Each structure stands twice: as structure tokens, then as C-alpha cells.
Amino acid sequence: AAFDKIYHIEELMSDYDPNSMLSKVNQNAFQEPVPVNTELFEVLAVSKSYSALSDGAFDITIGPIVQLWRKAKEDGMAPSADALKKAQDNVGYQSLILNPEKQTVQFAKKGMLLDLGGIAKGYAIDKAIQVLKAARVKGAMVDIGGDLRCFGAPANGVKHWLIGLQDPTNKGNVLLTLKMDDMAVATSGDYQRYVMVEDKKHSHIIDPATADSADNLSSVTLIAPTAMSADALATAVSVIGNEKGLELINAIENTEAILIS
Ligand code: ADP
Ligand code: MG
């Protein structure tokens, strides 16, 4: 049931699948308000709140720039400054219009594209955990590609969930081990998913302010009560950087971060 939930959310929110509910929004939301289901609406609304909280560092309207960098990977050539500038004009969470009564989404600008890559994984983890808790499972860990959430205790009398933090420069090396009970952990970094363009490594995380990849930190790990907040905040802090990123995290209750420069 937990896996079904995860697949269901992927079906709704993937931007690779042209038939996903998110893709329908991307195709039609400039022409008219597009009705979405409760799950997608929730993720869009929460995403906007993280944009406000992070001063625009986290922004799901980043789609047009992400598309250019994805294409750059195929072409082996960086996007032109002109193309980036044009894409950047269509980025901005303020142009994402959500109507909670009608549960619809609309774009204020033509050429807008939503990309939930920085938050949907966390949401899917939370939903899977919800399914497991509702089924009265005593303890579980749900891990999607290194982002995870756990509750209860592992089997065989082990007291805590042990989570190793990988060294970004040496995969085989565990830098430290976290002891977790009922918490979520998410890591954003440039060491596993990046784009090599013209011999330069570009993170897949984009700074909306510059339209360039955010390469300040090589790994950002967030520990938070929900996987969705850990996921979104890890992406946000990757953009914001060391100093201001820690300021942001220190202002949020029950949330900690481990940054590796
Ligand atoms: P990972 O997928 O490695 O866990 P993240 O959670 O940081 O890493 O998500 C990165 C993805 O988020 C990118 O591939 C892209 O789809 C999207 N993204 C890139 N930049 C931003 C941004 N500034 N705000 C929100 N989402 C972003
Ligand atoms: Mg993220």
C-alpha cells in the first residue's frame, strides 16, 4: 500500500510524463485555471510557502531554467545568456495563482513551467509513512534515493534508526552516523546528480536569482519532522548558501542542518 501511494504521487507530479496531472497544468494553466486534486494542490500551496520563507531561493516555477540545463547536458553546451535571461523572466512564484476554493492553478505568464523535483519526493515519503502508520505498523523507514523518514524502532531490539551521512568526495566513506527515532532526513548535493557542460560541473539545483546552478555547498542535509520540509529546505539552503542558510534553519523549530562546503 505504501508503494502504491508512492507510485500514485509520481504519476501525479512527474514532469517527465506528459500525461501526469502536473504536465496538464504546465500545458494549460496559462490559458485557463486548471483544476487539480487535493494532493497536488497541497504540494503547490506548501511549495509557495517555502518560496516566501526562503525569499525565493526555493521556487517550483524554476521549470524553464531546469529545462535549458537538461538540454545543455544533451548538447554538451551551456545555454546562452540570452536564453537563460528569457527563461528567467518566466520564473517567479508570485506568478503562480492558486485558488483554494476552486482548487485550481493558473499561470500569470506565458511560458511558465512547474518542476516539483525539489519537494515531491519528500511529499511521497510522508504519504507512504502515513499509510504505514494508519495500518498500525510499529516501525518503518521509507527511503527514496537517500531522502528518508522513519518512526518507531527497527527490528531485533535495535533502539534507533542509524543513518550514515555520506562523504560527498568519497562515496565509500561515512562521515557521521545519525541516530533517529521519529524524524525525516533529506540531502541535496552536487555530487550525485549534476550536469557536465564544457568540462564544468553544474549542480541540478538552480539559483533563481542568477539562473545558474547553485554550487556553493557540496552537500546539505536537513533533519526535520516531515520529509517534505526536509526536502524543500535542503534545496533552499543549497541555493542560499552557508551563512544565510544556517540563519534560516536556526529560525525554524525542530529543524537542523549539516552543511559541507
Ligand atoms: P535531489 O533530487 O538530489 O534530492 P533536490 O531535492 O535538491 O535534490 O531537488 C533538486 C531538483 O529540484 C532539481 O532537479 C530540479 O528539478 C528542482 N530544482 C532546482 N532548483 C530548484 C529551486 N531553486 N527551487 C525548487 N526546485 C528546484
Ligand atoms: Mg529537495
Features:
8 helices; binds adenosine-5'-diphosphate; 3-stranded antiparallel sheet; 261 residues; binds magnesium ion; alpha+beta; 26% strand
Order of helices and strands: HHEHHHEEHEEEEEEEEEEHHE
Relative helix content = 25-40%
Task: Classify the oligomer.
Answer: single chain
Radius of gyration from the CA trace? Answer: 18 Å
Q: Which residues form runs of ≥5 with pLDDT under 50?
A: none
- Cα distance, first to last residue? 39 Å
Number of strands: 14
Number of helices: 8
Bound molecules: adenosine-5'-diphosphate, magnesium ion
In short:
Helices cover 37% and strands 26% of the residues. It is an alpha+beta fold and 261 residues long.
List the helices and strands and how they pair.
Blueprint: H1 2-13, H2 21-28, E1 34-35, H3 38-53, H4 63-75, H5 81-89, E2 96-99, E3 104-107, H6 120-134, E4 140-144, E5 147-151, E6 161-167, E7 170-180, E8 183-189, E9 194-197, E10 200-203, E11 206-207, E12 212-213, E13 219-224, H7 227-240, H8 242-250, E14 256-260
Antiparallel strand pairs: 1-3, 2-3, 4-5, 5-8, 6-7, 8-13, 9-10, 11-12, 13-14
Helix pairs in contact: 1-6, 6-7, 7-8
The chain binds adenosine-5'-diphosphate and magnesium ion.
Please give a structural write-up:
- The model has no long low-confidence stretch (mean pLDDT 95).
- The chain is globular and about 55 Å long.
- Helices cover 37% and strands 26% of the residues.
- The protein is of the alpha+beta class and 261 residues long.
- Helix 1 packs antiparallel against helix 6, helix 6 runs antiparallel to helix 7 (227-240) and helix 7 runs antiparallel to helix 8.
- It has a five-stranded antiparallel β-sheet, covered by helices on one side. The chain has a three-stranded antiparallel β-sheet with strand order 1-3-2, covered by helices on one side.
- Bound molecules: adenosine-5'-diphosphate and magnesium ion (MG).
- The site of adenosine-5'-diphosphate (ADP) has 21 residues, from helix 7.
